[in-house]
Amino acid sequence: MTKPKNFVKKEIHHRIKNNLQVISSLLELECENLLSGDLEREKVIEAFRESNNRIISMSIIHEELYNSKDMETINFASYLKELTDDLFKSYKVGSSDIQLLLDVDDIFFEMDNAIPLGSLSMNSFLIH
To answer: Which residues, at least 6 apart from 115, have a Cβ–Cβ distance to it below 8 Å?
Structure first.
């Protein structure tokens, strides 16, 4: 493996580790939030669903990076399509009368922008 590819691979692994730490922190905050209030079954289920969706969001970004030609940029349109499909499945929206028509041109982001934008911002935006 050449040095630039090896560097990119190490960088991706470093970012994955950081993202796993973010997930861990978010789960800890969610746990504290649930324990500070009344533990209604629906709130617990929703908290787990949102946490799971954040993990899926991050895994899709890393998959897009892995499948990209340069392992440094992702096609954000492709990412959004994957993310919305998974969110619809998670919330069981696809079987109802609600449908999403996503008309997005190809746009490419470097991983420095794609990871925070996709992992937290887009996931929250699409859910709420």
So the answer is: 15, 19, 58, 61
Q: Are 75 and 106 in contact (CB under 8 A)?
A: yes
> Token digits for 31?
């746990």
Q: Determine the distance from the C-alpha atom of residue 64 to the mean position of all C-alpha atoms in its chain, rounded to a whole number.
A: 11
Residue 106's SS3 state is coil
Would you give per-residue pLDDT tens digits along the chain (128 residues)? 555 767 777 777 777 788 788 888 888 887 887 778 777 778 788 888 888 887 888 788 888 877 888 777 888 888 888 888 887 777 766 566 677 788 889 988 887 787 777 665 665 666 65
**0.85 surpassed by pTM:** no
